[in-house]
Amino acid sequence: MFLLRLMFVASLFPLYASAGSLSGVNAGVTPYACTDTGAQYLLAYDSHPKRQGWGAFGGGPKGDETARQTALRELYEETNCVFDKETLRTLKLKGPSKSGRFYSYVAEVPFFLLTDISAPRTCRDVERSQWIWIPHESLIEGLNRADSSPVIVIPGQQEFRFPLWRGAAKSLRNSLADGFLTVGDPCPRSDF
């Protein structure tokens, strides 16, 4: 079974190798930040009537943007321009995974408090107004549920629940299956 999976992944390599030159495609980024408690994934609430749930960042191209350019511009816009353009330009994107007509990357980003992300600034095309950092373990547990629109649960004294919209869940699961989003936490912990 492992050999079949390896052969399947190898057969997809040309797709991933050429994805940087793809233009005119929908693309996005699942950003994570390394913190003292491990990886935290930044998600945003999408209030569109067909979605109404939490997910990563992405959308359609402008002009002849490549998949990478589209993904980074969407991350910039949908996070209220909290990440400066130079930081985004130097991100090491993992991927992409293909989910239908959507190409999804995973990237480590600097950590910002949610109050910093939502602070007023002059940013155009901001489509999101609610963000949350999700712990790695909670995200993976949620994606491993059988639901097409799983609920991410953050345990604690007060349990918090964040339902993913169907397309976001599918894209995140494909990134997980392709190994760009990992089962193991990608960030070293500093447990003292």
UniProtKB/TrEMBL annotation:
Keywords for the protein's UniProt record, in alphabetical order: Hydrolase, Signal
InterPro entries: NUDIX_hydrolase-like_dom_sf (IPR015797), NUDIX_hydrolase_CS (IPR020084), NUDIX_hydrolase_dom (IPR000086)
Keyword Protease: no
Names of the cofactor(s): Mg(2+)
The organism's place on the tree of life at top rank: Bacteria
Nudix hydrolase domain mapped to chain residues: 24-159
A Pfam family the protein falls into: NUDIX
Region forming the signal peptide: 1-19
A GO term for molecular function: hydrolase activity
Protein name: NUDIX hydrolase
Natural source organism: Pontibacterium sinense
Organism placement in taxonomy: Bacteria, Pseudomonadati, Pseudomonadota, Gammaproteobacteria, Oceanospirillales
